[in-house]
Amino acid sequence: MPAGDAVFARFSWQHSWRGLGQHVSRRLANVTLDNLDDLPRRCRQCVFWELDPVGGERAVKAGDPGLEKEAWISGTLLDWGSCGKIVYVDGVAAGFVLYAPPLYVPRSIAFPTSPVSSDAVLLMTAHIIPEFSGGGLGRMLVQGVAKDLTRRGVRAIEAFGDLKWEQPSCVMPAEYLLSVGFKTVRPHLRFPRLRLELKTAVSWREDVEVALERLLGSMSPERALRPV
User: Fold this and answer.
1) CA gap 57, 51 in Å, rounded
2) Based on the number of CB atoms within 10 Å of its own CB, is 4 exposed (0-12), middle (13-18) or buried (19 or more)?
3) Domain annotation for the chain: domains and CATH numbers
4) Are 82 and 148 in contact (CB under 8 A)?
5) What is the C-alpha to C-alpha distance for residues 73 and 171, in angstroms, rounded to an integer?
6) Which helix (H) or strand (E) holds 26?
7) Among candidates 139, 111, 140, 137, which has minimal Cα distance to 124?
8) What is d(CA 24, CA 214) in angstroms, rounded to the nearest whole number?
9) Alpha carbon of 63 to those of 7, 113, 169, 202: distances in Å?
10) Strand 183-186 vs strand 172-173: parallel, antiparallel, or unpaired?
11) Is the terminal CB of the chain with fewer CB neighbours within 10 Å at N or C?
């Protein structure tokens, strides 16, 4: 989303929310098999991160990569715990984030700047639906992630950035990651690996929340999610 459009979307949401004086309910939920279908259809069927390139292609050819997505969510939940968050506004899923240790993300080893550090969790993918951009939902998601990761004693979060990012995709734009505080730990002409230290939950919130909300809002490939 162009910068001007992002600003407009943020203003529109804030204006409609505050101007109408409506009270909306917001809640954060862990991603589970029960609410997995609340992800956008394209994301629900995508196994870019969950499988290695060969396995991903095989799943697509088999005709139902969504089953592999379910298997990954189930296995990660059982072995490691929460691996994603969904934020709801008045019962409608408005955004989500997925994350996991590199051991659980087979695609990560296919990047030229792999491997992800053993002390870090990989930020896989995330976005906020454009209609809800600017309402503080990105902040709410990040707070949930920060609380979860710091509780587990995670030292850092890493991500693969795309220096040639042009449209919503499974890989985040490197320029945005850099703008919110990530530092390049392994450079590359296309897919650098970036890292953000999580010294404390406080430093995470103060340094990253607002800027990362802009990042999430800019990556929304779909216009709506189904109601709960």
Assistant:
1) 9
2) exposed
3) 3-12+22-218 (3.40.630.30)
4) yes
5) 19
6) strand 26-30
7) 111
8) 21
9) 39, 31, 21, 44
10) unpaired
11) C
Which amino acid would we find at residue 152?
R
Asked whether the beta carbons of 176 and 127 are under 8 A apart, the reply is no
Single-letter amino acid, residue 120: A
Helix (H, G, I), strand (E, B) or coil at 221: coil
Vertex 99 angle, CA 94 and 102, to 5°: 160
DSSP states along 39-75 = S-HHHHH--TTTS-HHHHHHHHHHT-HHHHHHHHHHH
